Every structure is written in structure tokens, then in C-alpha cells.
Amino acid sequence: MRAAPLAVSRSVWGSLTPPRVISLLAAATYVCLGAGGVAVLARPGPTPADVGIGAVLMIVGALAAAPAAWRGWWGVEAPAAALTVLGMGAVTALGITRSVLSDRWLSWHLWIVVAVALLIGQRVLRIWGRWWEPGFEPHTRLRQEETRLLAARAIGADILAAYDDVDAPDREESSHDHSA
């Protein structure tokens, strides 16, 4: 019975794209941001429409970004993360505007949102426009031809080496026939 949880945890850990800790933290960040969007919509009382739209953008972006970060689908994660930050920025800006207009002091939540936005912005800038992790891109036509040519040369060298090995015993015998 103890082997099953260990096997599941290894399977879950193995499904993360290396570097696994970074992928796990990125996915967890998006899950937390999605939960924040749900919390905005689920709070008691009416939610203003503009704040609701921002929260929906956060949720939709987080729903797409979390599995993309988990599996390393950078082509999906970058736009989804940008959508999440857009929604988070809208919710924050509209909340700040309402706070200023009602003479309430801006809360510490603003600084957490700014920090998270900067972290996600850094991630977006790092992976935007890249469909594959560096070093794992598909080969270009030139690289495919270079690989094919290298393989053909290696096969040719193996064939020549095989013919040399077949002729080698004859040469050795002929050198031993002539005694000095």
C-alpha cells in the first residue's frame, strides 16, 4: 500500500518539465492568481462589472498558464501569463481608483500585486516568442541536411573500414611469406 503514493508522487514529479522546481513554482503562482480572481468574484456583495471583467481575465489566463507552465508549453504560457497580468492589473487599478475616490488608504495588497506582476512580467519577457525550451528546438532544414550528410559520411567510413578489415589478413600473410 505504501508503494502507491510514492509511485504517484514520482509520476507527478516526472510530469513536470525540467527545471522542475521552477515549473512547479510558476504553475503554483498561476493557480494562486486564478484563486485570487475567483475570490474577487465570490466576495459578498455586488462586484462592479469592470472589476468582474478583470477577475475573469485573471481566471482565464491562469487556467491556461498553469498547465502550460507545468508541461513547458512556452508558446501557450507567455500569452496566458500576459492575460493573467492584464486581469490582475485591471482589478488592482480599479480597486485603487475606488480606494482613492472614497478617501480610503491604499492597502499593502498593492505592493504584493506589483511584485507578482514584475515576476510574471519577467517570465513573459523571458519566454515570449519561443515555442520550445532553448536547446530543444526542432532542427532547421540546414541542420537536417548537415545531420544527413554526417550520417552518410559515417556510413561510408564504416564501409571502407569493413573492406580494409577483409583485405588485412591477405596483407599480413604476404608479409610473412618473405623471410629475411
TrEMBL record:
Would the keyword Transmembrane helix be found if you checked this record's keyword annotation? Answer: yes
Keywords annotated in UniProt:
Membrane, Transmembrane, Transmembrane helix
Q: Which residues cross the membrane?
A: 21-41, 53-73, 80-100, 106-125
Put simply, this protein is called Uncharacterized protein
Biological source species: Actinomyces ruminis
